[in-house]
Amino acid sequence: MDKKIKIVQVIADSDLSGGPKHVLGILENINKDEFDVFLICPAGNLLTLARKIPGVEAYQVEMPSKFDVFAPMEMKYAFRKIYSSGNVFSPMIVHSHGPRAGLLARASLPHGVFSVYTEHRWDFDYHLENRVNEYFQLKYLRKYNFKTDLIIAVSSSVKDFLLKKKLAPENRVIVIPNGIELESKKLKVKSKNGDKKFHQITIGSVGNLNKQKGYDYLIEAMAIVVKKYPHITLEIVGDGEEREDLRFKIKDLRLDKNITLLGRRNDVEKLMKHWDIFVSSSIAETFGIVLLEAMKNGLPIVATRVGGVPDIITSLKNGLLVAKEDPESLAEAILKLVDHPSKAAEMVRQGHEIVKKYDWKNVIQLVQDAYRNVVSSKRTDGK
Fold first, then answer.
1. CA distances in angstroms from 175 to 119, 204, 283, 375, listed in the order given
2. How many other C-beta atoms lie within 10 A of the C-beta of residue 256?
3. From CA 376, how far away is CA 355, in angstroms rounded?
4. How many structural domains does the chain have?
5. What is the pLDDT of residues 71-99, one digit of tens each?
6. 254 and 271 housed in the same domain
C-alpha cells in the first residue's frame, strides 16, 4: 500500500523573493517517489512555475491579510481535498512559511495533520513600523509555534531570536538554510577587476526598495566612492515603496550618472555576469540568498553584518562585512575591493567553496530528514 507522505507547502507570497524562491526550490528538488507534493499560495510567479513542475498539485488561495475571512475557508477546503486524495491513511504534513501563511494555515489544520513552520523573517534586527502590529504578530507567532511539531529557522540568528524571546520550544527548533541551484552552473574563478580600468567598474545590488535594504546608506557610500573614482557605477535591481525617495536622494547627491534604479528584472543572473562587485546594505536580513547567487556568479561581496549574513559571509575570507547604517564603512570596503583585485579574486575563490554547501542537493536532504523525523517521532510517542 502506498504510504507516501503528503507534503503541503503554504505561503502567502508568490513574488519569487526569498521565501517563495525557497518554496520553489523544495517543490523542484523534493523526492517525488517518497512524497506527494502540494502547494497553496496566491496567484503569481510561484503558482505559475509550480504548476509546471511534474508531480506538484497547486491550489490558488489569496491571503491578503492574516485576518482575511475567506482565506481560512478556502484553505480548509484545500486541506480536506488533499487529505482525502490518494491513500487517506498516508501521513500529511502542512509546511507553512512566514507569519501570515503560518497563522492562517495552522489555524485551519485538519485533525491528525502534522505541522511544520519556517521562519524566514524575524530576528533581532527586524521590526515592523507599527509596533502594535509587531506585538500582536509575535504574540500569535508564540501561540502557534508552541502547537507546531517542528519550527525551522533559516539562520542561526533567527533561531537565537525565537529561543531568547521564548517564541518557540527549544526542543522543536532547528536551522535549515535556504538553498541554491548549482547543478547546471560550472563555477569559475574570474578576476573581475584585474583587467579593468576604474571607470569600467560596475557595482550591483538586488532587493526590494524598502527601509530594510538600507539603500539610503549605499547611495551615501557611492557619494564617497565617486570622489576617488568618478566613473564607477551602481545598478540596483528591485522596486518598492522607497523608489521615489531614493530617486530624489540620487538626484540631490548628483549621482544620476553613477546610480541606476533598474526596477524589477527577470534577468538578474545575466546582469551579475557584467557586475564587478556585489553589495548588500541591509539593516535586517535573516538569510540573504542573493549573496549565494552573487558568490555563484563570481562576485566579490560587501555586506552588512546583520541577521543571518555572518552565517554565509566570513569577513576577509569570502567577502567583507561592515556595520549597518554606516556609509563610510560601506565606501571603505568597496574601495578595498576596487584597489586590491587580487584579494577580491581570492574572496571569490573562497566563496565558490562555501556556496557548495547550500546546493539544493544538500539542503533538500535536510528538509526531507526533518519531514521524516516529524512523522516518526509522532508515531513513537503515540500521538
1. 10, 29, 22, 18
2. 10
3. 31
4. 2
5. 989 999 999 999 998 888 899 999 999 99
6. yes
